[in-house]
């Protein structure tokens, strides 16, 4: 005799549904993160990374969704938005240690005008390929005049470098 179908289906976590969330304010809690991400879709799991000795936040977390589409939506809607006064830097979770450690497809962008934000830099460089991470270095909430852009491929990084080298942005030559 066949069993009756359950009234609910267990959701299965899809591959590629994990996000890294960095540059968090030290006071951000798991509750704050859930509140920021819940409207995108159901969260499979969330982990705010803490120092094993002190229990203090390491200012980054991982948020896992059940589907790639939900994670992609969260990335698009929430990247560079403020949480407790600091913009979150959200990117796809990098499980490949080679691409994380080699600097594969990374660009160092110097001589940035101090008015250029991470989201502005990302919008300019995204014309050349898929960006995994983009950040303008800051100190006390102010730009330090340089940033980093990581693409998903070396070809995209080279295309951006070739196209944007020596171009004017905010009154300064890159």
Automatic annotation (TrEMBL):
Domain of life, per lineage: Eukaryota
PANTHER family, alphabetized: RNA BINDING PROTEIN
Record has Repeat as a keyword: yes
Keyword presence, Transcription regulation: no
SMART domains per record: RRM
UniProt protein name: RNA BINDING PROTEIN
Protein source organism: Salix purpurea
GO MF entries: RNA binding
Swiss-Prot/TrEMBL keywords: Repeat, RNA-binding
SUPFAM superfamilies with a match to the protein in the record: RNA-binding domain, RBD (SSF54928)
InterPro entries linked to this entry: Nucleotide-bd_a/b_plait_sf, RBD_domain_sf, RRM_dom
Residues covered by the RRM domain: 17-95, 105-174
């Amino acid at each position: 005799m066949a069993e009756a179908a359950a009234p609910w289906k267990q959701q299965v976590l899809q591959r590629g549904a994990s996000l890294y969330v960095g540059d968090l304010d030290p006071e951000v809690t798991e509750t704050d993160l859930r509140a920021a991400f819940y409207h995108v879709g159901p969260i499979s799991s969330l982990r705010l990374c803490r120092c094993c000795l002190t229990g203090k936040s390491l200012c980054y977390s991982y948020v896992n969704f059940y589907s790639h589409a939900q994670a992609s939506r969260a990335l698009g809607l929430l990247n560079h938005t403020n949480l407790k006064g600091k913009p979150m830097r959200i990117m796809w979770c990098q499980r490949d240690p080679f691409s994380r450690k080699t600097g594969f497809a990374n660009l160092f962008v110097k001589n940035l005008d101090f008015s250029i934000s991470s989201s502005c830099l990302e919008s300019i460089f995204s014309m050349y390929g898929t960006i995994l991470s983009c950040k303008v270095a800051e100190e006390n909430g102010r730009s330090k005049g340089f940033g980093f852009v990581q693409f998903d491929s070396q070809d995209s990084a080279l295309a951006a470098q070739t196209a944007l080298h020596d171009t004017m942005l905010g009154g300064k030559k890159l």
